[in-house]
Amino acid sequence: MSDAHDSFDLNSLRLAAGEERRLELAVSVEPLLLSDETYLVGPLPVPVQIRVARTSHRGYTLQLRFQATLTGPCMRCLAPASRVFAVDARELSQPDGGEGLDSPYVQAGLLDPSAWVRDALMLALPPAILCTDDCAGLCVVCGADLNSSPGHVHDQAGTDPRWARLAELNLAGEPDQPVVGARRQTPVVRRTDTSR
Hints:
The protein is mainly β. The protein is built from 1 helix and 9 strands; from the N terminus they run βββββββββα.
């Protein structure tokens, strides 16, 4: 495997229509920013396999395969998380073939493997990066890590002091107690014009 590739000239392969070539490239990938947290991609450079096949009319079909490790904070408990993702992506680059047939990763025969690897990895990620599949997260009351204390509970009878003032409100509007902060409503009188 050679040094990291920022771009690769597909025309240098000199493929005829119907021919294909398998490439092994090393690709640098910038860290990903997910939910305002930085996740490192490794190993760097990422070893990738790309299958390039020539179509008629100066086009290419491309297949990308690689494995990458994403390292950063767990999205539930904030502990360090490191997960491996296998990626298999395909692209079609058919210049002047119409909408949807031009790959954003191929411009004038130059392939941008770094952008393709980054986008393909983003599409392969689950909704949340977790330290383990069964991560319990943090306690919503005190912030304790529920993975290290599974029997963690709080007295449900206690009131959060931030909401204590709301307990004084009479939201039911019982007749013997006025509703705090309620405005007095005046009836709306509608007049009907009978002169017509």
